[in-house]
Structure formats: C-alpha cells, structure tokens
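dumping these here so i dont lose them again. two proteins, back to back, each one seq then structure tokens. dont judge the mess
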Amino acid sequence: MYLSFLCKTWYNIFGDKMNVNKLFNISDRISNISEECENELKVIFKEFEYTSYVNQAKILKSFQDNKVATMHLGSSTGYGYGDPGREVIEKIYSDIFGVEDALVRVQFVNGTHAISTALFACLKSGDELLYITGKPYDTLAETIGITENSMSLMSNGVKYNSIDLKDANEFDEDKIIEYIKSNTVKMIAIQRSKGYAVRKSMRIFQIESIVQKIKSIDNNIIVMVDNCYGELVEELEPTNVGADLCCGSLIKNIGGGLCETGAYIVGKSKYVELCAQRLTCPGIGKECGATMYQNRNILQGLFIAPSVVCNALKSMTFTACILEKLGFSAYPNYLEKRTDIIQTVKFDKKEELIKFIQGIQKASPVDSHVTPQPWNMPGYTDQVIMAAGTFIEGASIELSADSPIREPYVAYIQGGITYESAKLAILIAIENMLSEE
C-alpha cells in the first residue's frame, strides 16, 4: 500500500511532460518551442551520434591494442617513477591523436598551463610566435606579453604578432603566406575554438589546408594548435592533419566529465620532450610525475568521452535552435557544422545576458542556490560572470556559461554531460531571463 502511494505521488509530479515543466516553472510557450526544435534536430543529432560511434571505436581499439589492465587503473605517489597507468595513458593518447608522443599529466593546472608550457618550451629569445587566428584567448595575454608581465615570452625576448581571420571565418592565407616568406617565424599557433570572440571556430579541414600551405613554404615552422573544447567533435584531430603539437585540458571534452584536473600535450616526440622538461626540469622530463589516484578517472573519462561530447553537441545545438526561435543571434546557428562544444548567443542588453547566465547556475545540480555576479577574475581584462554548478570545479564539459561584461553582450555556453539535464537547464535559464523579477 505504501509502495502504491509512492508510485501515485511520483506519477503526480513526474507523470507527464507538463508536470515536469510545472516542476521547474517552464511555460507552455517555451515547452512548445522546445518540442519544435527537437523535431527539427533529429537528423543533426544522428550525425553527432555517428561521429561519437567512430571515435568510440578508435578509443576502444587503442585500449585493446595497449592491453589496458586492472593494474593500469592504480596510482603512484612521490616521484611517480615507472607508473604503468601513466605510461599506457600516454600511449593511448598518442594513438588517438596519431602522434609520436604524448604528455598527459595531472601536474598541469589547466589548458592554459599546457599551452604556456608548449610555448616556453619551444620558443627562445629572438624566436617569433605568430597567431593566425587573431588575438588569443584572454588568459594567454600575460603568458605572451600582450598584457605586460615580467615573466612573459615577450619580456624574455620572444617576438609576437597575429593575423586576424578573414571575415571572422577563414584563415587569411595571402597575409599568412606573405608574412612567413618575409619573416623568420619559429612557431605558428592556431586557436581552434573562438575564445571570447564572435567568430566561427576552425574546422579540421581548414586547419589541414593552412598547415599544408605553411609546411610547403617552411617545413621547420612548428604548428601548434590550442585544441581546447574541440576534442572528439570531429572524426580527426589537428595532429591527424599535420599539426606538430596539440594542447588541451582534461576537464573539458577528453576527460569525459570524470577527470578532476590535468591537461595534455601531444605531437612530435622532440617537441613533447621539450615540453616535459619545461613542465618538470631538464634531466627529468617525463620520468617523474605521480598520478595521485587519477589514472582510473583519466582512462574511464577518455573511454566515455565520445558519448559525453555527443551529449554536449546536442545540448548546444538545441540551445542555438531555441534561442534563435526567440529572436536572439546564435553563433554557430543550429544548422551549421560544429567543431567545438561552445555556443555563443548575443543578447541585446547586459541585463538579459546576466539573467540568462544566472539562470544556468539556478538550473545546476551543484550550488543551484548561488547567484553569480560579475567580478574581476584573474587573467581577464573585463569583469566576468560565470555560471558553473559543476561536480568538477571549472569543468566546461559540464554545462556552464560565462561572459566578459562588455559589448557585444555575448554568452559563451558550453558542455552538457547529459542532454536531458542540459535541455532542462537551458529552458530554466530562458525562463529566468524572460521573468520580470
């Protein structure tokens, strides 16, 4: 009898979609637009699922080829000499990215740390760094020296320049070719994702084309790709199409929502070894580095990452679709091909932007009672508002949203471990934005 009572109570709350909507105060209007979007997106969702299937097969084959065993799920402390789990992880990353070597370490504090390590490892005084996707992401400004810092590359004699994308969409091939023919460039950097810019992210075929042109002029130029937010979105990675180095974070796509910290650098062995010596010190390189009970998370997170990334892509495409139908501008739009898990949405007013991001926090599984406010975040030139009620702090494969408070008022939304939770969160955030409170 008590079980019957529980079942009836459960049904009364969750029995149909209208009651679920009422549970979170989602209006009939927003619910109906949501259904319309999902009907339109069925074919696109199938494409995401196929890419996930291909990447899952690639990862499974590497696990099998490298004979992953229970012992690899263990850990090391102290110096971390001879950690079999760490070694097999780096072999699997080498397989997935089609490279000679990999450095996958919990000692990296974030993706920016990995990118900074690669830059300092490969560039010395008198060398030149050229970004060909315009000014890089805000958190690299002090690393490079765009914002003054006595420890920056520029303060240590490295030259820096950048070339903007053409029409915010394509590499400006003519300017790039002209520049590298008339200058001695040591490294060319590509930021695959848009960062805090209103532009398209760079797809793999675009990266392949420009790398081929660069290498045809000077094969000694090191091409490095900031791969954050892009892993497993397409069937190939930048190193599969000629990039020498590729960097990213384990608390984004490739960590599958399970990695608690860390990042990776993959590529040609001579450059990866330089990066290892920069991360630790000359003479130690890759030989040390305790894994501190993270091998299981790294391996299992990688194994489920294709499915998690698929959910994130569905979530962001749904976000674009419903907000476009409400009259907002979304980049990319819901019909465009994607190469990362980021969705940008332009709002007309600062207040709309803030309320939407606060709505994402309100819809989170962790810290939903917290109301984020714009603040002076280290590494950023403008005040930033961030919503991230995530199980791993700052994990942007989990649904999160953030924005610098400056015109144009653009929200940068990313992630979604499960499509269902992300869909609910977007609907709640929309209702929060539209409310008159």
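---- next one ----
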Amino acid sequence: MKCFIGLGSNQGDRKQTLEFAIQKLNLISTNGKIIISPIYESSALIPIGAPKEWGEASYLNAVIQIEWSLSSMELLLELKQIEKDLGRITAPRWAPRIIDLDLLTFGDEVIDSENLKIPHPEILHRSFVLDPLKDLASTYQLPRTQKSVCVLARRLKSHTPLIMGILNLTPDSFSDGGVNLVTQNLESNLNKMLELEIPIVDLGAESTRPGAKMISIQEEWRRLEPALQYTHQFFKNKSFRPIISIDTSKPEIAERALSMGVTMINDVSGLAHLKMRGLVKESGCDFIFMHSLTQPANPDVCWSKTVDPIQELKIWIEEKMKLFEKEGLDLDRAIFDPGIGFGKTALQSIAILRRLDEFSELPVRILIGHSRKSFIKAWNISSPQLRDSATLSVSLAIKNKGIDILRVHDFESHKIALQSFQEIL
C-alpha cells in the first residue's frame, strides 16, 4: 500500500530531527525504501493568546512516500512511537513540536473513525503539505477530489515555488562564465546552497546563450564530471540533500550523469531525442521538458509577432504529454518549462510571464527560467550583472501565478525575498 506521511519540526535542530525521523521510517517501510520530498519552510500557526514561551520558530516540512502492508491503525501507532522516541511530549494542539508525523493518505482509502481520518482533513488547506506532496506525485488525485494535487497546491495563496540554483560550468556563459570551474568557487556555492536549504542544484556544462557554439560530448563531460564527483561527495549520506539536476540535451551525458547520482534531467530540447525519453523512463528521474525553436537560442528564429504564445504552448504541451504517456513516461516526474527567450520575442516572453496563470490547471509542475534573460533589455537594463534585480522583481510578480519552480542564478536573494514575501501574506 502506497502511503504519504507529512513531517514537521520547529524545535531544536530541525533538520537533524527530520533526518532521524527518516532513518526510523526507513526501518518500518515494507520494502525498506522511502521517497523524500524537498524541504519547505513555513511559519508556525500560533493562536492569539498563546504562551510567550512558544515563540514563533518556523517549521521545516516535508512529505515522504512509504510502502506499508499492514493496517492503517498499525501504521499510525508506529508513527506515534517514532514521535515519542524522538522526544515529542504531550502538549496543546498548537504548541511547538520537536517532531510531527501525520498520516496523510492510505492508498485510495477513505477512513472516518474517531482515532483516524484519511485523507488528513487539513491537507487541502495547507501549502506545507500540498507543495511537497505534489513534488512526489503531481498528478495524484486525493480521494473525493477531482483535481491533481499540483493544481490544488497552486490554488492556495501560500503556495511557494521551489528555488533551483544555477551553477554554470561553462567558460562562455554570458553572466558567470568560468566561475564554477574553479573548485573553491563551486565549494563555496554548494556550502551556501546547503546553508540556505536550496532544494535543487542545476549543473550545466554547455552554454545555450544566443550565439553559443555546440560542444562535443567529450568536452561537455570533461567540464561536468569533476563537478558531479565533487557534488556527489559533498552531499553524501544526507537524506535531505538537494536534488541534483543536469542541464543537457545529450542522452550520452544524461546516462553518465544518472549513474553518478543525478536525479533530474533538464532538457532544453523538450526530450526530442528518443534515447533521452528512454533514459527518463528507465531511471524514473524527474525531467524538465522545455519549449524551444532552436538550440542554442537564436534571436533571429522566433514565432511570428501575430502568434498567441500561450495558445501555441498549450498545443505543444498537449502533444508532448500524449507522446510521454504513449511511451510510458511517468508524468508525476514531468516538469514543463515554457522556454522564456527561446524562440520568442521579448514581448512574447513578457506576455507568457504575465499570463502564466493560464497554465494553472496543468497536472504537471511548471518551471520558469527567466533569470538574467535578454528580454529584460526591453526595460533598458543592458548589463547582465544588473539583471538580478529585474529577475527578482519578476519572480515576486509571478509567484502567485501557479509556478512550482524558479530557476535562478541569484538563489540567495531569492531565498530571502520569497521567505519575507511569504511572512506578510
């Protein structure tokens, strides 16, 4: 039986407590294996008049998928025992908690007993549950609902996109070329990502900027392999390690990267290659399929100015999803990227950003990669180094338009801005 369990902690070393909980949950899983979502941070729900000693420490939250062969009550009792083992004590409902384990679903069963209600009655109102749940099973429909958890998550005001931090390993990237080819710089950025809880790291060794030249498989792997080895070692033995994404359209590169711990493929060709689709299917990894007309981006090859970019993208997505389903790819692992700046004029890219909510009913996750893109020049901002402020402004403007992942260079400012934004909603 596939079950989803919510985890939360806002006392002590929160991340370490969640790590301990994961270790114990691994032991009770029927197949000895669990699947873990990224971590989300949320404000504590503090009622008016709560004791001052409760404080306002935020929660770290996650959802795990577990296989279970016994009854729902037996699983609930196991969760209660784990909470006790980790130091949870009896306290009022909204009191701070060192650990909180909630049984969210039990297969497709609906349970309404005095001691257990499944699905958990608060799921539909809590972004800190729906957001990590959709990262595990975006197309999943909760019993008694008609929408995927991905769609349900986007409908909440507190829905928060994950941050994908870009680490370029190219000597010719237009804004940070060569920086992360130096091991000390790569280490510094990875340390910063770990400290900030950046959930996705995107490594790319071939530039897709306008005018860039395609490189050989051998050259791309020469740049990429040392960084992958270092990254794998850096996050070794951490349950809540960031998702490692590889930005490539070459199946040969993707295959080697998957064997080295990569769990996400970011393909700017939209998985055009049959072998790439086969790799994604076989590995079960997450995959980003991006819309583009050329690779690398060619500013001279764009849609006609009379084209409605949203309608064109909807037609393209529908065709892609039909192809993926026909070939047996898991749509829970699919992530759509409209390809800002790839085959679109600046005005078309801006129109897509303005109308992103028109994609909100898609059952798959949506990623926006607008960071430092050339469309920003339409606002008289020419220097790549000055585009970060514009990028951040756009990110905040589209945050509540149903976006699930923001792919950005300046991940530190985005982490601070999104967290601050969330606190005053």
